[in-house]
Amino acid sequence: MNAHTTRAVGYVRVSTEEQAREGISIEAQEERIRALAAAKGWNLSNVIKDAGFSGKNLNRPGAKALLDICLGAGTDVVIVYKVDRITRKQKDLWFLLEEVFEAKRVGFVSVTEAFDTTTAAGKAFLGMLGTFAQLERDLVSERTREALNHKRTKGEWFGRLPTGFRMNEAGKLEEDLAALKMIARAKRLRREGASYGDISRALGRPKTTIYKLVNAHRKSRKSDYCRELSDVVVR
């Protein structure tokens, strides 16, 4: 490719947890990508961003936009800060390499990892990077499962709080009496024929909130959790 006519597109991604843990912000990634494109003399037309999305799959607005550009022959090279920014899944990486980049003659460049996807050795090296990215994702999932199991065995709640309950200082689930009274009143008004709008005005809460309150199944949510907790303790 002629360096002076090469069209380039950058792609950056970060999840909230990653940014807090590793400091690889969207801005930092974009700055490094722009610097590389300038050094190569490439025409960087756009830096596509996916903020707050994990790399577990390609179901992201920015990733989809990038695919559209590549499949539409809208760029000659894609630049990322690191391979795992575009995906942490080996299967998705090989899909991008073979079905998108290679098929459309689009180069793939990382700021922090040296590889050339136009050579067999470069593709093999990139495959190894994909393997380690997949391993890191699997390890994170394993640690998450272990943390949740630990909470279960201690009787602590995990995940989204059921409507009508709150967390106490000991990390235990307990009933929120004020919320339960509001739920009971909302349900009663609904049974008496009041519309969601009427109940919203009566309780001074948004209609969407009223809908959730009226249709909340608090007891079943809590009993399901307690039964699951009991099963874990018994095992």
**Percentage of β-strand residues:** 5-15%
- How do the strands line up in the largest sheet? 2-1-3-4
Q: What is the H/E order?
A: EHHEHEHHEHEEHHHH
Q: Would you count the extended β strands for me? A: 6
Percent of residues in helices comes to 55-70%
| Secondary-structure class | alpha/beta
The number of domains is 2
How many helices? 10
Overall mean confidence score, pLDDT:
76
For the record, the CATH class of the largest domain is: Alpha Beta
Main sheet summary: 4 strands, parallel
Question: Per CATH, which architecture of the largest domain?
Answer: 3-Layer(aba) Sandwich
Q: What is this structure, in a nutshell?
A:
With 235 residues, this protein is α/β, with parallel strands linked by helices.
Explain how this protein is built:
- Mean pLDDT is 76; it is low at 218-235.
- The termini are far apart.
- The chain has a four-stranded parallel beta sheet with strand order 2-1-3-4, sandwiched between helices. Strands 5-6 form a two-stranded antiparallel ribbon.
- It contains ten helices and six strands, in the order βααβαβααβαββαααα.
- The protein folds into two domains: 7-140, 3-Layer(aba) Sandwich (Rossmann fold); 154-234, no CATH class.
- It is an alpha/beta fold and 235 residues long.
- Helix 5 packs antiparallel against helix 6 and helix 8 crosses helix 9 (207-214).
